[in-house]
Amino acid sequence: MKIGAVILAAGEGRRFGKNKLLEKINGKTIIEHVLSNVDMERAIIVGKYAQELFPYLKNEIVIYNPKWMEGISTSIKLGLRFFQNYDGVLIALGDMPFVKTEDIHKIIDSFNSECNAIIPTYKETWGNPVILSKKIFDKVMEINGDVGAKKILKNMKNLCFVECSKGVIIDIDTINDLLTFEKPP
Amino acid sequence: MKIGAVILAAGEGRRFGKNKLLEKINGKTIIEHVLSNVDMERAIIVGKYAQELFPYLKNEIVIYNPKWMEGISTSIKLGLRFFQNYDGVLIALGDMPFVKTEDIHKIIDSFNSECNAIIPTYKETWGNPVILSKKIFDKVMEINGDVGAKKILKNMKNLCFVECSKGVIIDIDTINDLLTFEKPP
Predict the structure, then answer these.
(1) Residues 6+ apart with CB under 8 A from A88
(2) Which residues of B touch A10 (CB under 8 A)?
């Protein structure tokens, strides 16, 4: 099974008020945490903060999404195009620094041709990153605006689930989140 | 026929000694000339000078090639991946500001399913940009190092040709070229 990762780092971080991905947790920026945790073939989608993020991404395939203002669906679709001949794509979020490499491996190991998607859970709460199967790429390419893949997955059959660490349900949305999680959960 | 353009702007410009794409010809940078001439769906591949070029590319899909040092083949392959479900890809060079929009249209209009590639010519000299047919994408994905698509095309059958303006054989390699062509040919 060939699986690529799309790391979404194009958002404005409106609730945060600035580029949260360069904030530090335990001495390392959030984007650096994500890059070290998602240890697989990947493309990083950037937007609003492309120029600031770039120095951290010199060794990465980086795709700039000129439509970042139109919302997360446009970034997912750009990333998918890049991996369109793969069996599946892992959609990772740039603001989820506590997803462990172990979680990533668990999610990938759970993927098989029966699943339209793999969804990581923590105590039955759906988390991220999900894997989208090639079988549903066409459906994903139809989403628009500030809508993630979850909207499509909600009404879909043949979803597979895998229980992971609490990291899969923690994103950094506000300065307060940052203070709360200064120590990893 | 669905054709996308890959604009190659990742090179170091070794013979030029600096980033030639931001040099001006008739008051407009070279990359701006290219963007206005190649008027079709496109992705711009950047490398060494990503950060300097970026302000000119805010409305474009931009792909940063972390392997730009390994040569032009790596940029072509990245671009091709993005358009892998298209019928063909036009490979345009960021340092060829004199290719006319008319030439681009001629090249596209010449494309048909019989051709493995379309090659523009000026007085029988092969020029650029070429269109590579989907049929030869696999072959192109095998090139390595500082090798362009021409190497593959040299020994290929079913090539189609179209006579274009002198612009298709003029690239800017040295400061001298820039002075010579201050007025378009």
Answers:
(1) A1, A2, A3, A111, A118, A131, A132, A133, A134
(2) none
| A151: Cβ contacts below 8 Å, ≥ 6 apart | A143
By C-alpha distance, the chain A residue nearest B45 is A63
pLDDT digits (tens, 9 = 90+) for B151-165: 889 989 999 999 999
ipTM: 0.94
SS3 B7: strand
Report pLDDT digits (tens) over B69-91: 999 999 999 999 999 999 999 99
Tell me the three state secondary structure of residue B148: coil
| Residue B31 to residue B9: CA distance in whole angstroms | 8
Which residues in B have their CB inside 8 Å of a CB on A? 50-51, 54, 57-66, 78, 81-82, 84-85
Tell me which residue has tokens 């989140």: A177
